[in-house]
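The following record pairs a protein chain with its ligand, flavin mononucleotide.
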Amino acid sequence: MEIPCSRWYEAIWIRRSRRQFDPRQLDQYALEGLGVVCKSFRPFEGVRAVLVDNAPDAVFKGIISNYGKIKGAPAFIAFMGNMEDPNVHEKLGYTGEGIVLEATALNLGTCWVGVSFNAELASHLAHIEKQEKILAITPVGYTREKWSLEERIMTGFGMTHKRKPLEKLLVKGRDASWPLWVKTALEAARVAPSAINRQPWRFTTGENSITISVDSLKDTLNISKRLDCGIAMLHIELASLHCGNKGGWEFLAPPHVARFKVNKKNRGYQI
Ligand SMILES: Cc1cc2nc3c(=O)[nH]c(=O)nc-3n(C[C@H](O)[C@H](O)[C@H](O)COP(=O)(O)O)c2cc1C
């Protein structure tokens, strides 16, 4: 499937993690839209997403930090991968974020959940294969435009959405000669979601490229930082496409994750 660039690029800026849902079932339009994207957005072998349209609340277990329990979601999407693939985490982050952004574009609430879910129940409901593991899920459903007090408290009145300044994420600092696509891509990557908002990505810019690395090889909460970086990878690519530049990814050995290079033949307005 072709990436719906402007639809997902716009969704980057409005997506927020939501944890309280209106329990009404998803309508046909939403179900079809999500079903299609789960089946068709398969940019990498070995990772996939499955929509489960009847989510018992028991799938969302306990709490992570002080976020509280996820409540009322009528459906969830399981993100699963073949654990023999050395790049499974970043591939799944990239793929899952496409689906999260499509849900956002469909006006649905989501929340990446890497820890506080019942893996056994989710694996059963999503029918995983032998070599697969669910690395994260997201609830999907309708949310109130106005946040409840409980949800505002859970997110520290917006603190969990706060991001580090770009300077803290750059390995070599800002460069006055960055083309527009680099500036746009770094801003889009900066607002990507990450587990406990740890923002583990570090960026190195090169001629026509951005390399993502992790800040350290130590993972927290048993969630790979490479999963967060996979999410940021999609944001970088969407921003680059938004600026008219196609490019491609090369996976790298730790502590690096991947390098995005724009094609030389691009006709983007600023490369
Ligand atoms: C890989 C991953 C795992 C996450 N796991 C959980 C989780 O288990 N429970 C939860 O409530 N939030 C979880 N989150 C949501 C983050 O806390 C949230 O994305 C972050 O605080 C940034 O806030 P925002 O999504 O509103 O921008 C996870 C996010 C990511 C990307």
